């Protein structure tokens, strides 16, 4: 019996050791990831970029995004940037994966994309009942569409009336001086200069005046945001007897009422290839350019 008791006492440490070493010392299993994400903004304007970001508490995960109406439409980045070009309400779907599994979240009508709404009203030309959007830049009320008034001489690009709704008509300087509706007139050189400085200077202002994208401008349409609501299309120009109709999508040139000492007139010019807003004094009054009118 004494030998049996001794044996039991000797076995207890061994059994205790086996009990300890037999326990599972592996790390706790990872939980499935959370398909949560952050977004820079949800209510945007066309041609705005939205940044998405997977929730940081997930740690290392594989991601799969689907952006309805966005560019790109799919992404596997954890912090993708997405461009939206068309108005609408668009869904976002995110799937995240780790060793424990995967989780998917779908947010319908999550990103709301609107047209530019920074025009501050409209005006109706009493002569032909055409209505034009109006915006305010540097305190100045100015038309947010090219003048399309038929004075009997003004022309559409390629003489095609279908261009009128977007690009308006072309006028010589003499015609432009009389083309604006009652109580409206051509801007002065100084007024365009004031607008340019208000918008950050010559090389920053142009992009803020142009329609974005390539529907009405050729690539690259640099820096175009239309943040002013001026909404300039690349209307081109008319040069009778020389290049005829030219530069559609490449440039837009607008008359001012200010003459130069060389009997030319000052113009404001926007271009596709850069974000510049040029104001130049080399324009022959017999050339045909676009017109915007300001409230007198």
Question: What does this protein look like?
Answer:
By secondary structure, the protein is an alpha+beta fold. It folds into 2 domains: 78 residues, Immunoglobulin-like (Sandwich); 175 residues. 15% of the residues lie in helices and 34% in strands. It is built from 5 helices and 19 strands. The protein has a 5-stranded mixed sheet, with no helix packed on it. Strand 10 and strand 11 form a beta hairpin. It is elongated. 33% of the residues are buried. About 2% of the residues have low confidence.
Short précis:
With 296 residues, the chain is of the alpha+beta class. Helices cover 15% and strands 34% of the residues. It folds into 2 domains: 37-114, Immunoglobulin-like, CATH 2.60.40.10; 121-295.
